[in-house]
Amino acid sequence: MSPVTIIENAHVITVDQTRRELPGASVMIDGSRIVAVGESPDTLPADAVRVDGSGCVLTPGLVNTHHHLYQWITRGLAADHTLFEWLTTLYPIWAGIDEDAVRAAALGGLTQLALSGCTTTTDHHYVFPAEGGDLLGAEIDAARTIGLRFHPTRGSMDLSEKDGGLPPDSVVQPIDEILTASADAVSRWHDATPDSMLQIALAPCSPFSVTTDLLRESAVLARELGVRMHTHLAESLDENTYCDEHFGCTPLQYMESVGWVGDDVWFAHGIEFDDDEISRLAATSTGVAHCPTSNARLGNRICRTRDLVDAGVPVGLGVDGAASNESCRLLEEAHQAVLMARARGGPTALRTRTAIELATIGGARVLGRAADTGSIEVGKLADLVLWDLSSVAHSGIDDPVAALVLGAIPPVAASWVNGRRIIAEGEMLTVDADVVAADVAREHRRLIAKAG
User: Fold this and answer.
1) Which of 33, 277, 318, 395 could form a disulfide with 273 if both were Cys (CB 3.0 to 4.6 A apart)?
2) 59 and 34 in contact (C-beta within 8 Å)?
């Protein structure tokens, strides 16, 4: 077993039920769990690892509720397009992905997430070219290598251009093939235990890339298997128009008609909900992954984050895919969430501490893991990030939460996932980041060449 670790002299932001903040405090890890929070114990095992947190802030690990890791090798393309233009430009390129491309992309994206304070992430993978190989397995292998807690989704598309959807024929699959692959993914990988490092969800892509039958049958299958459900929804005005023209209703009304609301469902983006729909989300505990940077990058409108939070909707933060958010730093999403909310609702629309909550316990709630992670409490999983606030970028900012959310993104002095240290002194311990970067560049060139 690993020796006990104690992180000492840190400003601890617990995000527990009473939202305690403890200056000069200690947190002790034994195995995968937090076993003490507050004062240092009088005695420690002789082999205990002591980490000095002086000048640092310790937070729960950040939780990312929406991503597309395969896009890490297509960053910077279609930089000035609307959502639908962006999709139709990139789908032909994404049609060329394979296991090597996805593994390199996932290693790159997950390394960036880890280095920016993320300890738990989901991924929405929905592009499965016929000759691509085991793409979900490739990113799961990458997550194990990096050491992050991983909630990948078996995504899908079955509505191609010829049938009125956006994706080309080469990246859609028949519904029976999708459902079989979805069930196989859950059987092969899903771990429902309390300290699980890997859980699968089912995730048809969006109302404009899947059929009604696929949505309805995926919901039935997910609930039979006891796994969560995820999709894009209410992201843009184009989507509103599409749903009105094809289904005669709003995106949320359409999803509710096929069984897609409930405490086992979360939607990415959720920008275009009206008052009644926000109330409906709250009443059903349906979650929302707020992705402010991607929303702004694609020129969509501003999410009603304050209204969602006030209504009691489970809300977390997501970086979204790297092709619509080239930086993919989760703390930046907390920063942007505050700015976007205040741009919409004034200077008190979203507090800095609320942003930290969205990035931690809020995301854990969206992913169904709030009982295990998302806060610093005795008995919870040791998913922790130690942020270095000792440099000139943060000196003189008395409020550590303001320093994190409004200041420059600080370096990660150390990070633990499930009690295992994966970052020390700002460097990855599980992979060589330079090798990962070189692999990403190679796979980017190969994919672009394949697309012609």
Assistant:
1) 277
2) no
